[in-house]
Amino acid sequence: MNFDLSQEQKMLVDSIQKFLKNDYSFETRCKLANSSLGFSEENWKLFAELGWLGVALGSDYGGFGGSTEDIMLMHEALGRALVTEPILPTALLCGRLIELLGTEAQKKSLLPSLIQGELQLALAYNEAIARNNPAVVGCVAQREGDNYVISGKKIGVLNGHAASQLLVTARTAGDVRASAGISVFLVDAYAAGVERKPYQTVDGLRAAEIEFNGVEVTAAQRLGAEGDAFVALETVLDEACLALCAEAVGAMEVLYKTTIEYCKTRKQFGVPIGKFQALQFRMVDMFMLHEQAKSMIYQAALRAKDISTKEGRAKAREAISACKVYIGKAGRRIGQEAIQLHGGMGMTDELNVGHYFKRLTAIDALFGNVDYHLHRYDECVTASREIA
Amino acid sequence: MDLSIKPEYLQFREEVRSFLAQNLTDDLREAGRLATSVFHDVERSMAWQKILHKKGWVAPNWPKQYGGTGWDVVQRAIFAEESMKASAPAMIPMGLLMCGPCIIGYGTQAQKDYYLPRILSGEDLWCQGYSEPGSGSDLASLQTFAASDGDDYIVNGTKIWTTYAHFANKIFCLVRTDKEAKPQKGITFLLIDMTSPGIKVEPIIGLDGIREQNTVFFDNVRVPKANRIGNENDGWTVAKYLLMFERGGQEYAPALYAGLAQVKDIASKEAGSFGGPLIADTNFRRKLNELEIDIMALEFTENRIKSALGSGQNPGALASMTKILGTELSQRVTELAIEAVGVYGLPLQTDAIQPGAGLPFVGPEYALTAMPRYLNTRATTIYGGSNEVQRGIIAKLVLGL
């Protein structure tokens, strides 16, 4: 057992950190978050050139063919700078779903252009009735001859504002809560009947509510066999969940370290407030929570290595849910403590603290919160106990 | 990164397992199974020590030249884990884990030659004289005084919380030899024979009803200067070396998982109040799962430490937090266990948990140890440097506050 990084992994992390240090200051990030697109197209091209968009995607299409470890390392680094460019929605959620479900022709037409930075995508899976459960799909794709007609409403579609193409989950058979009978379609975001309501999120990113009002698509726009998309869908959501957890670990590191630095310089009653034991102990707990969170993301990335195989999937689900539970709780605690220890300054928009806090708050709500993943973890351990 | 285990370690695990299977008698296993503290039944611990000594496995963390095993950090962890799983009685740590390493680090050749074999064989049973009635977390304020008298010291004072002093024939002590110097500067590390005239041992009964600890009184106890480890007034250095030696050595996760497995077992046998077994109760399950996930985080922190040690790095900050996390989690495990046994945690039956007692008891056997363990485990966050002291150390040395 070892936790050492390979040479390639070190180079990847170094290149991300170098870029972020030189070209992604907090001020820059805020400007991008408030720009009309919410991120920089120039950066997007640069990320493509540096190969970051293809880290998780197959080398046949120009990707790096990376593992869950590589996904983790990249997103932990990105999380330290609260990067707004939509790598997770486009490259991970959609890129990987295309890779897992698509025909060779679909992969060839989409993945190289995605990896080269010419494509913005979004996965529309979540619904108000689903509360992040990917098996719950009320959106319907009605077969009409060679075509399908899609109707329904999707919520919280990350990068939904910028995507030119959408991957949409829709029911082609079965009950609203059945995992069988779910299909994925590639839908032009500007097609007739697609109504997007983009919004800015509290953590400075973008998402959209999207209604599909009788949107017509051809059978060729379906990814994978009809009604058989669930396993692939859950797999990419789990991989994205892992990436999100890694991002949270990066954000937590910045938050606890920033808090310590602040408490060393801020003076009250004639001494730096970091001299007060009441505050020291709270910072020690923040430090330990971050280290433990980091251990959990390693745990998840390593146990989820074989997530794409039938045998590896059960183990990966359990490991990732455990991770999301821990990180949801640790992120909330570290975020809240960082604000409290910064006092009034922690409440301002000016300091980076509040921005990291809001990102951690948002991360818990995405892809299932602590309660959601505790529930799923319980299902996983019960199932593995029954097998044993 | 790689979670896989090297084949040689799998082989080593098999070797340990088969040794344990062949050598652990039911009587010895009972001591491990009924233990409610980190200090197991003294008679059976010493009996097991003799068997391990014969095999050469009694001091895994000593250098090989002094009788250690030459195992690496992973092998040591495997041995500890398998021993625990097999309910082997735990070694009494004061000689093997505490005093021995100090002698190895700072003793003279004569001291090494005399004491180390006796620690390994179990001929000497050591206890630790650090804390005093007025000196707990602030250890450097200790007052027990050793006055110079020719080739001897004359020791006067009181040591407290001295685990197994009533069984031990030796005690290693921190004593004051200079009252004028700064607190840490005037301390000396002394080895004292418990049969020396002037030593009196009085019991302290714990809140679990068990005598584990004692108060040790020193009234003009004559100790040869030859029993000093390190230089006079340099005992603090020896004590700090011991802390360093201990650091990164202990793994908590295996024992925590074992405790949690017991809780699951209890909860699947106990009835829930509203139908089904307790383990099907939503509220109970939530606590169980949250605890399991928190233990998993520590497991991987400990794996990261092992990995760093294995590749020659200093785990530094990581190592200083495992005592806090491990002990706090152990308290949560024992707390969940008393919740699981419910009313059967209440009968006071201290005598029935003594190995070999064979006494009748109230309730199911799995409930016998739950409450004494819960009570005893409250001490884990107090001893070995209270968790508040540990947080203070991290604040100062790791966070630079």
Describe what you observe in this structure.
The complex is a heterodimer of chains A (388) and B (401). Chain A has helices spanning 7-23, 26-34, 41-50, 68-80, 87-101, 104-115, 230-265, 277-303, 310-342, 352-365, 370-387, and strands at 121-124, 140-144, 147-158, 165-171, 182-188, 194-200, 206-218, 222-223, 267-268, 271-272. With 388 residues, chain A is an alpha+beta fold. A 4-stranded mixed β-sheet of chain A has the order 1-4-5-8, covered by helices on one side. A 4-stranded antiparallel β-sheet of chain A has the order 2-3-7-6, with no helix packed on it. In chain A, strands 9-10 form a two-stranded antiparallel sheet. In chain A, strand 6 and strand 7 form a beta hairpin. The two termini of chain A are 25 Å apart. The mean pLDDT of chain A is 97. Chain B is built from 12 helices and 8 strands. Chain B has helices spanning 7-23, 26-34, 42-55, 73-85, 93-106, 109-121, 235-246, 253-269, 282-310, 317-341, 370-377, 387-398, and strands at 126-129, 145-149, 152-160, 170-176, 187-193, 199-205, 211-224, 228-229. In chain B, helix 1 packs parallel to helix 4, helix 9 packs antiparallel against helix 10 and helix 10 packs antiparallel against helix 12 (387-398). Chain A binds chain B through residues 1-5, 69, 260, 263-264, 274-275, 277, 280-281, 283-285, 287-288, 291-293, 295-296, 298-299, 301-303, 322, 325-326, 374, 377-378, 381, and chain B through 1-5, 74, 285-286, 289-290, 292-294, 296-301, 303-304, 306-308, 310-311, 317-318, 321, 324-325, 388, 391-392, 394-395, 398-401.
